[in-house]
Amino acid sequence: MSNIGLNSNIYHSTRTYLDLLNNFLIDANYARETGKTYSNDDVLLFFKNLSDKSLVDPEKQLLRSFFNRFYKEKRKDTEKELSDIANNLQKDAFDEKVLRDIEALVDVLKFQCAQSYARMKGAR
Length: 124
What we know:
By secondary structure, the protein is mostly helical. It has helices spanning 3-34, 41-51, 58-73, 78-91, 96-121. The protein is globular. It starts with a helix and ends with a helix.
């Protein structure tokens, strides 16, 4: 695969899940302010898949590698952190900390998305 094709695939994958997490954060924050309901099913499935040790989906393995690097810099265990997020989402008992943790992962995806876009354009 060419570099452009590779970076295009990385961009597409990160953009898809970046949108998923961004939309969830918007819905969750809006629901907290208005008391309306929202769905976390897709986000819950996303975090459950990422926290699974036997993950075989190449796209999710790529995302997990980005998160691994992020958590390694923070000296945290990726599987534990992703599992904690999934468990809190499943219980529908998440607080500001969980939202901040998801926001941090959104920042990771934003960075990767920007990097792959820059590489496609030849800027980097």
